Here is the input.
Amino acid sequence: MNSGQQEEVAPKGNLAEIFCQFLRLGSIAFGGPAAHIALMEEEFVRRRVWLSRERFLDLVGAVSLLPGPSSTELAIYLGQMRGGLPGLIVAGAAFILPAAFLVVALAWAYLRFGSVPQVAGLLFGVKPVVVVLIAQAIWALGKTALRTVSLAVLAAAIIVLSILAVPPLVLLIGAGVVWMVAKEIGARRSRGAAMLPILAGAASSSAAAIPIGVTPVFLYFLKVGAVLFGGGYVLLALLRADLVVGLHWLTEAQLLDAIAVSQATPGPFFTVATFIGYLLGGWRGATLATIGMFLPAFVFVAATAKFLPRLRQSKAASAFLDGVNAAAVALMAFVGWQFAHAALLNAPALAMAAVSAVLVFRYKVNSAWMILGAALVGVLLGFLHWI
Here is the structure.
């Protein structure tokens, strides 16, 4: 990767274009952050050539180091590159809105009828396609991020440490530091050894018991969006500890239903805040919970968007980013494997994955049509009781 600044290769776009692209993406982005990153790589690197793969990897590495929803922050970064500050706002909002509206509708149905609609068939059909799309993105990004044997070895070590349950943030920063030190030693002498630093994990926080209402709901999710590292799994643990055990705002069953709805809808998983906000305060609660959860992401990206490209001008910072990027691809591969292990459980799922792989790798079929078609097949299989 060139250590100089990586610029986007496409001219600036208009806000209507940015809004339409991210609204469409937010409507089909099932499968969590790894799948969302895969969809964005396909759409904006390979199909529309908004930016180079090297620059895209830098953005993936950067959002992995920020608190909050990483795939949403990646969408916000891409919007900023394409349309400046207005593009930043439009891209992030368009990516979030489809999931937020759908989650509110499901929350209304949940309160009115006491249950959420059955979506097992839809999820069954979509998951094999998501597995293939993640694999395609890992292959494409890995060819750029793991361009040397040493970086490939570093990525392999990250996967091993992930299996040993080392926190992702520790792995990302540790990989960046290790590679930066290794490059510095290599610049001074032809051969040298680098030490592996042991880094402390991110601190967690707990909410104080406050009266329930839309303002406390907003403040709670604002805090979560501003300090949460580690993605969806950490978020689930925090919500249970705070909202079920600590504050008693929700029952265990309500939290599980909120999680199920968020997993069954496209877009960022952090719209679980939208569902919870609706349960606690109706549409006002849903609106304020959503704003609170995602507002820090917009602020973080706006504060770092101009600074990030300049890191490539520094040899030390460029080496740090190379290490982080290698770790990010390794973590994406680890998550992809976990997702595949959970999704490909029977013969129909394996068959759908095989067909999807041929269509994606051989015929380059657009991911949007793949996901929509798989969702319809899954619903049909569920209707026929074949899953």
